[in-house]
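Researcher: Here's the sequence for the chain we discussed earlier.
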Amino acid sequence: MRRMAQHSQLRLITELNITPLITVVLVLLFVFMLAGPLLHDGAVPVPEKTSTPPSSIARLVLDKSGTIALDGRPVLLANLKDQLASLVKDKPGTGVLVQMDRELPVQVLVDLMDVLRLAGVQKTAVATLEK
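Model: Thanks. This is the structure I predict for it:
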């Protein structure tokens, strides 16, 4: 009999009712959900506009055959960096719109973007040629 009494006491100790704990947690969650927006002053920081639109835009076209044209004039890839550098030097803030054929490999675009970066072009945009 004594053993049974000890067993029932142990069983009572191991059985925990977590319903009140869950109730307290849910009430606290509800309170913080209501109080959270009231603690915020309502001012949302807006980033300042740091980028200015380009003063002029040069158009660089790469067709399917790999021919490069800068503003309608054919250019060799070896001379492109120098021509772009002089363009940026003459008109600071010049942007370059790169239009290339969709079927060209991406590596061609990556190589071209390296040339633009080395020439000092800060603003670029990429588009595909219309058929």
